[in-house]
Amino acid sequence: MNSNSTPSGLKKFENGFIRIAGKISGNRLLLTLRDTFVLVAATTMIAGFGIMIQNVIVDPMNGLIFGKQGLQLGRLISGSWATWQQSGFEHGLQTVANLIALVSNGILNFFRFASSSNFQLESLNQIL
C-alpha cells in the first residue's frame, strides 16, 4: 500500500490519538497541575534526602554511622561514649543535623501552606 492511498486502521488511530492528545495537552488546568506536581515532588524529595542524611549519617548518638546502633564511629574516634558526647565534633554534627531538620521542615511546611484552600482558589481564578 503506498502513502497516497486511504489510511490503514493504525494510521486512523494514530491521527485520532494525536488530535485528542493535542487538545488534552493544551488544557491550562492540566498544565498547571503538571507544573505544580513537578515543583512539589522535587522539593519534597530534597526534604526527604535531608531527613535521611540527618538521621542516618549525621545524627551523632542514634545514627548508623556514629551512633550506638550502627558502626559506633563516635566511640572509636574519642575512646568512650562519655568523651564522644562532650567532644566538639559531636556538637558540630548535632548542629548540622538541627539545621537540616529546620530546612526540611521549612520546605514541607511551605507546601502545607501552599495547599491551603485560599491559595488554590487564587490559582484557579488566575487560570480561568
Kindly describe this structure.
The protein is mainly alpha-helical and 128 residues long. Helices cover 77% and strands 0% of the residues. The protein contains six helices and no strands. The protein has helices at residues 9-25, 28-58, 73-78, 81-86, 88-114, 117-127. The longest helix is centred in the middle third of the chain and has 31 residues, at 28-58. The model has no long low-confidence stretch (mean pLDDT 79). Keywords: Membrane, Transmembrane, Transmembrane helix.
Please sum up the structure shown:
Keywords: Membrane, Transmembrane, Transmembrane helix. This protein is mainly α. The chain has helices at residues 9-25, 28-58, 73-78, 81-86, 88-114, 117-127.
**Low-confidence segments, ≥5 residues, pLDDT <50?**
none
| General form | elongated
The count of DSSP E runs of length 2 or more, i.e. the number of strands, is 0
Would you tell me the overall average pLDDT? 79
How many separate helices? 6
Largest sheet: none
Beta strand %: under 5%
Radius of gyration: 27 Å
User: N- to C-terminal separation?
Assistant: 47 Å
Assign a percent range to the helix content.
over 70%
Going by helix content, strand content and strand pairing, the class is: mainly alpha
Give helix and strand order, one letter per element, not per position: HHHHHH
List the helices and strands and how they pair.
Layout lengths: L8 H17 L2 H31 L14 H6 L2 H6 L1 H27 L2 H11 L1
Give structural attributes:
128 residues; mainly alpha; 77% helix; transmembrane; membrane; transmembrane helix
